[in-house]
Write a structure and sequence with these properties.
By secondary structure, the chain is mainly alpha-helical. 64% of the residues lie in helices and 7% in strands. It contains 8 helices and 5 strands. Strands 1-3-4 form a 3-stranded antiparallel sheet. Strands 2-5 form a two-stranded parallel sheet. The longest helix is centred in the C-terminal third of the chain and has 36 residues.
Length: 237
């Protein structure tokens, strides 16, 4: 792993696959996102003027935030068919922190919007399938949902703490990316047998999982520390 201080934008690369499995997956993710937006639609009406200003400013800041201070893999673990897959060689630290902080403070709906905007901006740095955007939606939306939920059982109380919630959301994001690419991996590996299929799945996990887990743990610690130092930033239960 290494830090990249600045990354220049490339050609915008948000790609839509016209294969039947990808279209079905896109429809499912779009429906789930629409349901999530409908479920939490009242959140925007509860935002005050100051919160709206912070929300808008954060969305604007996501543009330069995606250009600076990225965590990148120093090496790429490849396999026979990984040329057909989309891999994130880097994750912007400041941008993901802004999305996480906004979701932690304002809730799931602002987190979804910020995650989606950040994902679209990220497509300006490497070619990304449109279905991968939903990993960013999960990152913003689930952080907001877990930290703002009010269940009283032990596990749910623990998940109101960023130190526990953020790594879990990272795992969910990687699982979503794995599901998105699994069909491509399967189709690419069919002529070569099950061993190549397993190799490609492990390659995907090796190239994505560590990056997302580091981001989840680091951001979870920072937001947890912020809540400890200044409890007024903690979501009201």
């Amino acid at each position: 792993m290494n830090l990249e201080w600045y990354r220049f934008p490339a050609t915008f690369g948000l790609e839509f696959s016209y294969g039947f499995p990808s279209i079905i997956l896109f429809a499912v993710y779009l429906a789930l996102t629409g349901w999530f937006l409908w479920k939490y639609r009242a959140e925007f009406s509860r935002l005050g003027r100051q919160q709206w200003m912070i929300f808008t400013l954060t969305l604007v800041l996501l543009i330069p935030a995606n250009m600076v201070l990225s965590l990148a893999r120093s090496s790429f673990i490849s396999s026979a068919s990984t040329a057909t897959l989309s891999f994130a060689f880097f994750i912007p630290l400041i941008a993901t922190l802004l999305v996480a902080a906004l979701a932690a403070w304002l809730g799931p709906l602002p987190g979804i919007v910020a995650g989606l905007v950040s994902g679209i901006i990220w497509a300006g740095f490497y070619h990304m399938p449109v279905n991968d955007l939903f990993a960013f939606v999960v990152w913003g939306g689930m952080i907001g949902a877990l930290l703002h939920q009010s269940f009283k059982d032990g596990p749910f109380v623990a998940l109101r703490h960023p130190i526990f919630a953020f790594p879990l959301v990272s795992l969910l994001a990687v699982t979503l990316l794995l599901l998105i690419n699994r069909l491509v991996i399967y189709l690419a590996s069919l002529p070569q047998g099950n061993l190549v299929l397993i190799e490609n799945l492990l390659s995907l996990l090796s190239n994505e999982l560590l990056l997302w887990l580091i981001i989840g743990i680091a951001h979870g610690l920072l937001i947890e520390l912020l809540f400890f130092v200044n409890p007024r930033f903690k979501p009201a239960q």
